[in-house]
Design a protein that fits this description.
Blueprint: H1 2-45, E1 59-64, E2 67-70, E3 74-78, E4 82-87, H2 91-99, E5 102-103, E6 108-109, E7 113-121, E8 130-136, E9 141-147, H3 162-169
Antiparallel strand pairs: 1-2, 3-4, 4-9, 5-7, 6-7, 7-8, 8-9
Length: 184
């Protein structure tokens, strides 16, 4: 009977120790959860990351020479060295949108619009230079984008004769025009 008493006393003591150790993590978790609660409530009051600021325009799907236009703007004309787009937004908002998407060194502000005289489109062809005009119309805004990249001069062919050079320029070797009726 004495041995049974010792075993039951030892098991009772062990249960007390286990119960005490088991309570420690619970109290630690409770304190940790309480300290995290103010952080969660502070982030709940902050605006979500996926919202636009007032006046900020969302990117659309159309582009001009690599410049992604704001949502709602449509390309109305496109040529090899100039393109036009229009949309129903404020010119100032469109100018800020363009400013964020081009490498700009100088901006010209006018009464009816903003001009970016020599820019490169961020993420676009770095060898191309553009002039971007953001103009205010009656109820819309227009973007006119000119490709102002200088055209490289033609390299003369070393095998070309002197007479062929004159002919290509529209003149005879003596300097007289090839077609006297069509003088330059």
């Amino acid at each position: 009977m004495g041995a049974d008493h010792r075993i039951s006393a030892a098991s009772g003591c062990a249960l007390t120790v286990l119960a005490a150790l088991g309570a420690l993590p619970l109290s630690g978790c409770h304190r940790r959860a309480a300290s995290q609660a103010p952080i969660a409530s502070a982030t709940a009051s902050a605006p979500p990351v996926d919202r636009l600021a007032p006046g900020e325009l969302a990117p659309g799907t159309e582009d001009m020479y690599g410049l992604l236009l704001p949502r709602g703007m449509r390309v109305s004309a496109r040529f090899p060295r100039v393109a036009h787009a229009t949309g129903p937004m404020h010119a100032e908002d469109v100018a800020n949108y363009v400013r964020d998407r081009v490498d700009v060194k100088r901006v010209e502000l006018g009464a009816v619009g903003t001009v970016f005289p020599a820019v490169h489109v961020v993420g676009g062809d770095p060898t191309r230079t553009y002039r971007v005009e953001v103009n205010s119309a009656s109820d819309a805004t227009e973007i006119v984008m000119h490709d102002v990249t200088p055209i490289p001069p033609k390299v003369a062919d070393p095998t070309e004769s002197e007479a062929d050079k004159w002919k290509r320029a529209g003149y005879k070797p003596n300097g007289m025009p090839l077609d006297p009726m069509n003088q330059r």
